[in-house]
Amino acid sequence: MGNPKAFLDIARQEAGYRPVNDRIHDYGEVEQTLNAKDRRQQASRCMDCGVPFCHWACPLGNKAPEWNDALYKGDWELAYQLLSDTNPFPEFTGRICPALCEKACVLNLYNHEPTTNRENECAIVEGAFREGYITVHHPKRNGKRVAVVGAGPAGLAAANELNLMGYEVTVIEKNEAAGGLLRYGIPNFKLNKAVIDRRIALLEEEGITFRFGENVESAAVIPQLSEQYDAVVIATGTPTARDLKAPGRELKGVHFALELLSQQNRVLAGVEFTKDERITAKGKDVLVIGGGDTGSDCIGTAHRQGAKSVTQIEIMPKPPVGPEDPNNPWPNFPRTFKTTSSHEEGCTRRWNINTLEFLGEGGRLTGVKVQEIDWKPNPEGGRPLMVEKGKPEVIKAELVLLAMGFLKPEHPEYPENVFVCGDAASGASLVVRAMASGKEAAKKVDAYCNKV
Q: Is the pTM here over 0.70, yes or no?
């Protein structure tokens, strides 16, 4: 801990976002960066607590006090070594992680100005790529082969870990490129896809084989795959979005959120779609149903496509406003009101709104009938009961995006050398948790292969 009083003398400083009027006209990353001097100052604010709750809160077990201290002292190479000991892809989490570590930071309890761990993390790894601290590893092979099904964050983390252990790893992905949710769910304005390509090129150089455009996820194919490899890791995510079976669901203009997000990312990658295939918000009143991060990503994408207006509705109540959550106190992650960069770009937000019906003319969506509701305690316990509150109304919309989460996958009984990880095992969660699950799956594979 190089400067024990820094947290008293130096305020939290975030890099912030590009100006709204600038960023909504392109898909470049919205977040800016600090210069090296300011970044080191921010790292100096870490208090190297006797009980590091940041370490406790991080699913990967990142040792933030250690690499923050190295960063403050100007030893960027050591900072990267300490960071990469626990985090295989800090360039991903450094951009999109909600930073559970920061919410558990003692400074967050003290004055709600935690250390900027996430931004520091991104700065460290980008510095490492820039300065050549990241080198190619060529592990000694152990003669055993593992197939990883799915090239999302969990699958990539498992593949990376197994490859470093000496396994010959083949990653099989149904899409045309690696990344999973990182590539086809998260917009480019949050994560430039060149960042993914850079990492995949490194993994390939280290010996991992990628096979794209192959769908081997069916219950019938996995057992066959398990006979061809010493072990199989299933990291196929949560492919099934939660639907809304309201009347009029079949109208043209009602889409799942990922239909829009994945298509837009593919368009930016050079994939062409016909006019009928193209999903666009240009000149339309857009309604996003669902108040989470996926819904927020739809808002930002709709703005960049030229939406006329954007409204977001959520069936649950508005979260408490303010940094503290009495129902989920520090050091747990607070479930409080969140405003993202996409919300800042313009959006009408409403809570306690239930969707009744999709309305249309000539097979095309024109509006959505909704109703304000309330929630009352369930006398039998469990989920509160929904009760009508306001009168039905119509929200004008030519495009509806359903962003209500994903269904947890169900798996049959697999052979003993098959391991499931990430969202495929837990249901939809955070990228950082998927990566941690992938690393854990690699350990289980290694224990199994060394037992048999």
A: yes
